[in-house]
Amino acid sequence: MCGLCGEIRFDDEEADIAAVDRMTEAMHDRGPDGSGLWSQGPVALGHRRLKIIDLSDKAAQPMVDGELGLTVVFNGCLYNYAELRDELRRDGYTFYSTSDTEVLLKAYHRWGTACVERFKGMFAFAVAERDTGRVVLGRDRLGIKPMYLAENGRRLRFASSLPALLAAGDVDTGVDPVALHHYMTFHALVPGERTILAGVRKLPAATVRVVEPDGTSREHRYWDPPYTRGALPEHAGLDADEWREAVLDALRAAVRRRMVADVPVGVLLSGGLDSSLIVALLAEQGQEGLATFSIGFEAAGGEKGDEFAYSDLVAERFGTAHHRIRIPDGRLVDGLERAVLAMSEPMVSHDCVAFYLLSEEVAQHVKVVQSGQGADEVFAGYRWFPPLADVPRERAAEVYAREFFDRPHGELARVLASGHLLDHDASGAFVGEHLARPGADTALDAVLRLETTAMLVDDPVKRVDNMTMAHGLEARTPFLDHELVELAAACPAELKLAHGGKGVLKDAARRLLPADVIDRPKGYFPVPAIRHVDGRVLDLVRDALTSRAARERGLFRPDYVARLLADPDADGTPTGVNPLWQLGLLEMWLQAHGV
To answer: Which of 208, 248, 316, 343 is the most buried if burial means most Cβ atoms within 10 Å?
Structure first.
């Protein structure tokens, strides 16, 4: 829902409202239903609106409450806003709209920065205090909604997308060498505060930042699940059947919460366990005529391009209003170029273009969808999790690096040009420091904590937000409900690893879904032409990597690029990323955004 932006000056100048206007306009696709600007001295805010809750102009943003002396811009949805509004009314607050934005504003007045601890939902926001000049930035626990920052000594700018900051101007667009190391190690994922550009950072997930008028600031992280068996005393001593019921009940609540809207809500149905379970639970709760959507592509490299057999099975079982969307190769290439433009950061996952094209079609039918992202990280569904079973806690980083890293630090010398090489293993250090933190009972617990609170934020979560919001479509992810995540974190590792991964979730699904869906081989949005980099996709990659811009930037060794172009399927990584696509996508993104 929406896009927000703003500028805070620390040099006694008024905020540059023209720059904020440029940022706002750059996010038009995130909020096609309206826009607004507000400024007061050194602070200016901008907003693009996607109407989901309270479709009236009373819910327009920036929202100003003159009585409380607060102005807010907000992106996301507070699923428990009705309950919070009732509580705030009992405390004496009056409401003029039925929006969750006004609830957020008055919750901040009532509870200060601790308001985030009461929110159930996805959110990024900025609250400006009239009387103090203070601005408070906040982001949800799982980082579902983005917040990018560009800061120098004179001012801080923030926005829901990185390209919006570029539109404002005056950004250091040099490639961050540590971020490049992460990109090449974590299959394009740049976790934490960094982005691929040296001048842009991210507000971390589960973080509130208080910015004072003089430019000083403080941050605090308000949520950090411990990943220990004793974290939830009420679930101590549960047997496998009781854990299955607890997980199913928590997922029921998560799915039900994400139906709150003043517009219809659909489901992105891949035919896999996760999205199919969402459909089943909605049907169980009495949803009729639910709109579901699946996508397929042409085969390539001997690989099938759709999973319609499974999505059709689920759609028929639950009587959904199902939409099959098949994309010909000609449209794929056009969609690929537009998907790269829609990326706030370069993302190599081949299903980005699938999400982009699927969202383009879905947005013609509904404004909100539920989607199954996050289940694999939360319930240990990926193939790199089982090798961590029974590994001593102190060896977690070693085993995770072997199973998850695209290439060890020492191999980067044959890929990156010497001017972009680091003399230390920044990615290994990031992982090692995270896994060494206190808490997390086992090696698997430590890695699941890393995956859920860091890696997931900057891969599937960002991917879904970028590709859906490019078409003014809001995606909601029930598997990232923070109460469900806390429950899964406390669940015994052996229950999650059972049945090849996501065992407790599969067991919970057996009373609702056909065995063919639960026990099928793990699938993804298949886009064979990108996984194998052939045809017109190969032409795009070759053009990007051999262009004058790429030569002048000089990120990669020419001999390595030439070898990959001669053999596009060479050097496959442990997680299945095509290295040629990894290199080509980065150059395509930099060039598409004028870097």
So the answer is: 343
User: What are the E-state strand segments in 41-110?
Assistant: 43-49, 63-65, 70-78
pLDDT tens for each residue of 62-96: 999 999 999 999 999 999 999 999 999 999 999 99
CA distance from start to end of the chain: 28
Beta bridge partners of 475: 369
Which amino acid, one-letter code, is at 103? V
Alpha helices (H) along 436-534: 443-450, 462-469, 482-490, 493-497, 503-509, 515-518, 528-531
10 Å Cβ neighbour count for 333? 18
Residue 23 · residue 159 · CB < 8 Å? yes
Give the count of alpha carbons within 13 A of 540, CB side only.
26
For residue 523, is it left (φ>0), alpha (ψ between -120 and 50) or beta?
beta
354 residue type, one letter: A
Q: Which residues contact 219 (CB under 8 A, 6 or more apart)?
A: 204, 207, 208, 209, 210
Judge contact between 354 and 472, C-beta under 8 A: no
Answer yes or no: are the C-beta atoms of 29 and 161 closer than 8 Å: no
- Cα–Cα distances (Å) from 35 to 46, 59, 130, 150, 156, in that order, read 8, 12, 22, 22, 21
CA distances (Å), origin 39, targets 72, 101, 154, 509:
12, 19, 17, 51
Global confidence as pTM: 0.96
Three-class secondary structure of residue 37 per DSSP: strand
- Phi/psi for 77 (5° steps) reads -155, 130
CB atoms within 10 A of CB 568: 20
Taking the C-alpha atoms of residue 442 and residue 273, their distance in angstroms, rounded to an integer, is 26
Is the pLDDT assigned to residue 139 strictly greater than 90? yes
